[in-house]
Amino acid sequence: MGGDEQGGSPTHTFLQVLVSGILVGGLYGMFSSGLALVLGSTKVVNFAHGDFITLGMYGAVQFARFGLNPLESLVPIALIMFAVGAVVYQVALRRSVLDQHESPSERTGFSHVQLVITISISLIIENGLQVAYSPNSQSINDFLNGTLNLGGIYVPETQLLAFGVALVTFALLYIAIHRTRRGKALQAIVDNLGAAALVGINASRMYIVTFGTGCALAAISGVVLITYYPAVPTTGLNLLTIAFVVVILGGLGNTVGAFVSGIVIGVVQQLTATYVSIGLQNIGLFVVFIAAMLFFPQGILGKRGAAL
Amino acid sequence: MRWRLPLFVAVLVATLPLWLLTNQYLRSTATLTLLWIAAGIAWNVLGGFGGQLSLGHGVFFGLGAYGLYFWFEHVSASSAWLGVPVIALLAAVVGLPMVVAFRLRGVYFALVTFAVVTIIQDLAGYFSSVTNGPDGVSLPLVNGGSAPSAIEFSNPVTYFYIALGAVVLYGAIAALVRRSSFGLRLRAIRDDEVAARSNGVKVIRVKVAALLLSAWMVAVVGALYMATVQFIDPASGFGPMVITQTVVAPMAGGLGTLWGPALGAGILYPLQQAFSNLFPNLAGMGLVVYGAVVALLMRLEPRGFVGVFSRVAVLWDNGINWVARRRSGEERWVRVLSRWRMSESSLEGSSPSTM
Predict the structure, then answer these.
(1) Nearest by CB to A294, which of B100, B192, B287?
(2) What is the ipTM of this complex?
(3) What is the gyration radius of the CA atoms in chain A, in angstroms?
(4) Is B350 exposed, middle or buried (0-12, 13-18, 19+ CB in 10 A)?
(5) Bridge partners (DSSP) listed for residue A150
C-alpha cells in the first residue's frame, strides 16, 4: 500500500500522498473501530481481529469464484462473519469475559486467558487458510480497474470505493451506537456495568452482538481491501498491528477516536513510505505509537466519560 | 523431597535418545522442544512470576541468534562458548530500553512490547547489509561441522543434551527465583503493584532485574537455537512463531508455575510437529491443531495443563479412596469420625453457652 510516485511539483506530490493516505486511512479507521467496539464493551484484546479481516478477503475471493463481485458479496460476507464472530465469542470467550467482569481480580483488567485464546484463534485462522488456499497470494484484479483524475490527483476507483464503504459503514455504526435504544444500552454497559444490569440490560447478550459486529466490520474492510491489495494467510498480522496502534491512539474502546486516528495513521504511513522509505512505512507508525503511548497514555483524543 | 520428581524427569528425558528418539527427525524435534521449554521458563520469570505479559521476548531471542552469527563473523568461532553468555548479556542490555514500557500496565505493556518486536523484525529485514535481509543468515561451518569449541558437533545428539542442560539449569534458576525474596517481591507486584509499592517494594528496580534475567535467559536460548539450527531469518528470530513458542506455550502450560512451561512446550510442540508430519501436503495443519488444543484447553481450564494435571491428581486420589471404601467397611467409620471432628470444630467457634 505504498504511495504512488507521481511526477510534478512537491506540493502536488504531497497532495497525492495526503489523498491516498486518507483513502487508506478510512479503511484502517473502519476495521479499527471494530476492534475498539469489542475492546470497549467486552474488554477482550482481540489478537484475531486482523485475521477476521483476512477471512473477509478470502471470503470475497471465494465468492468471486462463484461469480459475485466484491460489492455484491459484501453483505453476505458481513452477515456470515457476524455469525462467526458471535459463535467464536459464545464458544471460546464468553466464560472468561464474564468471569473477569464478575471478579476484576486482576487490577490491570487484562486476562491472559483471553490473550491465549485469541492468539490461538489467530493461529487456527492463519494456518487454516494456508491449508485451504495454499500460502500463495490471492487477489481480485478484474473489478473496477479505472483511475479517476481529480484535478491532477490520481485516485484508483477501488480505493475510492473502499473509502466510501468505510464511511457508510462507520456512519451506520455511529447511528447504531448513538441513536438507537440498543446502542444506548450498550453505552450504559460500558459506562457502568452494575447499574446497567440493575435496569435490566443483559450485558452477556449484548457482548455477542458487539463481538459479531466487530468481526463483521473487519470482514467488510477485508472485502473492499481485496479489490486493490492481494491477500496471503498472514496478511492479518500487519493489519492487526496497525489496528492496535490506531485503537490505542484513539483512546482504548473509543470508536470515533479509532476512525479519526485511523485516517491520521493512514496519512502518517503514506508520508513515511513516500518521503523516508517504503520498507520503513510501518516503523514510522510504531515509533509514533510508542511515543504516544508513553506520553499520552489516554490516547490522542482522550477518554471523555463513556467511550464508544 | 521437592527435587525428586524433577530429577526423575530429567534422567528419564536424558535416556530418551537411547530408546525413543531413534531417528534424526525425532531427535531434532526433541531438541527444539527442549529449547522452547527453556525459552518458556525464561519468559515465565518475568511474565508468570512478575505478571508482566511481554510479547516482545522475541527481541532477545532473535538478538541472541543473530548475535552468535556476528560473534562467528567478527570475533572468533572458537570462542563460541564464551560468546553465548556475553551475546546474551549484550542482547539484554540492548533490549533494556524496553523498561520504558514498565510505566504501562497490563494490556498497554503487552501491546507496546508487541510493537517493539514488530519494529525489530522490520528493521532486521530492512538493513540487509548487516543481516542479509529477509533471506536470513547461516552459521559458517567450522572444520566441516565438527568443532566442539564452536558449538558444532558431528553427532547431533550433543545438541539434545546441551538443550537439556539449559532446561535443567533454567528450572533450577526459576525454582530459586520463586523461593527467594526477589521472587516474593515479583509476585507481590503481579498481585497488586500499588500495595507492593506501599509495602516498600522497589517496583521498578525489581521489574528491571526480572527483565534483565528473563531477557538474558531467552537470549541464551536464541544463541543455542542458532547453534542447533544454524540458520536464522527475521521471521524465525523475531516473528510471530517466537511469540507462540515462548509466550503461548508457557501460558497454556500454567502461567507462573514451575512446571507450566515444561508441560506447555513439552506437549504442544511435539503435537504440532506430529500433525505437520501426519499431513505433509497440508502445510499449517500442525499449527491449526496447536491453536485448537490451546483454545479448548484455556476455555475448559484457565490454569492450563498444570490445572488439568492437578484435577487428574484429585480424581486419582478420590478414585483410590473409592476403591478403599468398597474393600473395607472402615470407610463408614472414617466418615462418621470426620463428621464428628467437623462438628467439634464448628462448636469451638461458637460461644460456650450453646454447648
Answers:
(1) B100
(2) 0.86
(3) 19
(4) exposed
(5) A153
A117 and chain B in contact, CB less than 8 A: yes
The answer to whether the beta carbons of residues A169 and A78 sit under 8 Å apart is no
- The distance of Cα A18 from the centroid of its chain, to the nearest Å, equals 21
Residues B81 and B87 sit within 8 Å (Cβ to Cβ): no
Alpha-carbon distance B102 to A286, whole Å? Answer: 17
B43 CB within 8 Å of a chain A CB? no
Partner B, chain A 42-81, Cβ-Cβ below 8 Å: 45
Q: Is B251 on the interface with A (CB under 8 A)?
A: yes
Residue at B127: amino acid letter: F
CB contact under 8 A, B292 and A124: yes
CA-nearest of A294, A268, A296 to A282 is A268
- Inspect the interface and report whether the beta carbons of A126 and B284 lie closer than 8 Å: yes
CB contact (8 A) between residue A123 and residue B243: no
Among B51, B291, B302, the residue with its CB nearest the CB of A124 is B291
pTM score, whole prediction: 0.87
Q: Is A289 on the interface with B (CB under 8 A)?
A: yes
3-state secondary structure of A85: helix
Whether residue B298 and residue A237 make contact (CB cut-off 8 A), yes or no, is: no
Q: How do the pLDDT tens digits run along chain B, 355 residues long?
A: 477 888 889 889 988 888 888 888 899 999 999 999 999 999 999 999 998 989 999 999 999 999 999 999 998 888 889 999 999 999 999 888 888 788 777 777 888 888 889 888 988 988 888 888 889 999 988 887 788 888 888 888 999 999 999 999 999 999 999 999 999 999 999 888 889 999 999 999 999 999 999 999 999 999 999 999 999 999 999 988 898 999 999 999 999 999 999 999 999 999 999 999 898 888 789 999 999 999 999 988 888 999 888 888 777 776 665 555 555 555 555 555 565 555 444 444 433 333 3
Name which residue leads in pLDDT, A210 or B4. A210
Q: Parallel, antiparallel, or unpaired for β A147-150 and B137-138?
A: unpaired
* CA–CA separation, A85 and A95 (whole Å): 15
